[in-house]
Specification:
The chain is 33% helix and 11% strand. It has eight helices and six strands, in the order ααβαβααββαβαβα.
């Protein structure tokens, strides 16, 4: 059974014992045996492992993992060092630099954000090599919706950053008005010009957190 190793185990309770997850598990066992699947099976739950429930300050919602070798490692928009940032992340870095003046790092690994309270959650947590959305509709969305729901239930305010239509579709799950929702276009080169630039997502997140006496996120990314 899934063991995260922090307070998510208690918060999610018996979620991993439910029939939908058991079906998903059977599907994944077969997929990992017969296909090339990303991320590595030991990295699937890294978003939850790196960012305990009680420490979440902000949530960034992605779609599904990168589907090329050596990239996905369980955090949305992030790739393993020393892999360079993919195009969407390049644009996120540019917006970060414009917003807070932080220099663009030479890699695409966002582990430092995850360890600083930013839950980097994909809607689907696995994918076949070279086949985006190939694990869509297999059960992951039920689990990740539940994760958003239990975050919404938390009394301590946090920020939900929704980039693009897939992420914005989750807004209906965020009903507590003491959380902040920041929305923008998807940062991909195809969509960024439709309303991603200039959103100041990072400084606005920290201003909101500080307003409620919380530590701001350290958005700087070490080399």
């Amino acid at each position: 059974m899934v063991h995260i190793g922090n307070d998510w185990d208690e918060v999610l309770g018996n979620e991993f014992e439910k029939e939908y997850y058991q079906q998903l598990r059977r599907f994944l066992i077969e997929e990992y045996k017969t296909q090339t699947v990303y991320p590595d099976m030991y990295d699937i739950f890294n978003a939850l492992k790196f960012t305990p429930y009680g420490e979440v300050k902000a949530v960034i919602i992605g779609q599904d993992p990168y589907h090329q070798p050596g990239q996905a490692h369980g955090l949305c928009f992030s790739v393993k060092k020393p892999v360079p940032a993919p195009p969407s992340l390049v644009n996120i870095y540019k917006e970060l630099e414009a917003d807070l003046g932080f220099p663009v790092p030479g890699h695409g690994c966002l582990e430092s954000w995850a360890k600083n309270g930013v839950l980097l959650l994909n809607t689907s947590l696995t994918v076949r090599r070279g086949q985006p959305n190939s694990h869509k509709g297999k059960g992951w969305e039920i689990l990740t919706d539940r994760i958003i729901e239990v975050l919404n239930e938390r009394e301590e305010p946090m920020v939900f950053i929704l980039w693009g239509n897939n992420a914005k579709a989750k807004e209906k799950l965020i009903t507590n008005n003491h959380h902040l929702i920041l929305k923008g276009a998807h940062p991909s080169p195809l969509g960024a010009h439709k309303g991603f630039w200039g959103g100041k997502y990072f400084s606005r997140t920290n201003a909101f957190l500080q307003q409620f006496g919380q530590e701001p996120v350290d958005w700087r990314i070490p080399e």
